[in-house]
């Protein structure tokens, strides 16, 4: 299907130089259970092709809230020089302080290298 990224397509890439892959779309950390193989997801595929860290979502994400969270994350990461895990923690904390319900920010997860 045009416009849909699959784990199979990702498997053809070399992301060994990729420090952080951010998939700011719904369900990007959710996978499909496969007999004898466990769960296959875009997040897992990114790690398998070399991405050191990934930021993905566990459930459907609100567009406006996602934009706000990702902007706050990058401001903390690049603007303040924080590590990836700390930048995400502080971005989530900021969302909570701005009264966004947890369903809008809690499902974002960082895997891999936290720094």
Per-chain topology:
Elements: H1 7-10, E1 21-22, E2 32-34, E3 38-40, H2 42-48, E4 53-57, H3 63-79, H4 84-97, E5 108-112
Characterize the structure shown:
The protein is of the alpha+beta class and 115 residues long. The chain has one domain (7-112). The chain is 37% helix and 16% strand. The protein has helices at residues 7-10, 42-48, 63-79, 84-97, and strands at residues 21-22, 32-34, 38-40, 53-57, 108-112. The strands form two sheets. It has a three-stranded mixed beta sheet, with helices on both faces. A two-stranded antiparallel ribbon has the order 2-3. It is globular and about 40 Å long.
Give a short summary of the structure.
By secondary structure, the protein is an alpha+beta fold.
The class by helix and strand makeup works out as: alpha+beta
Largest sheet: 3 strands, mixed
Overall mean pLDDT: 89
Structural Rg: 14 Å
Going across the major beta sheet, what is the strand order? Answer: 1-4-5
Counting DSSP E segments of at least 2 residues, the number of strands comes to 5
Query: Given the C-alpha coordinates, what overall shape results?
Result: globular
Instruction: Give the strand content.
Output: 15-25%
Tally of individual domains: 1
Number of helices: 4
**Helix/strand order:** HEEEHEHHE
Q: What percentage of residues falls in helices of 4 or more residues?
A: 25-40%
Q: What's the end-to-end separation, in Å?
A: 35 Å
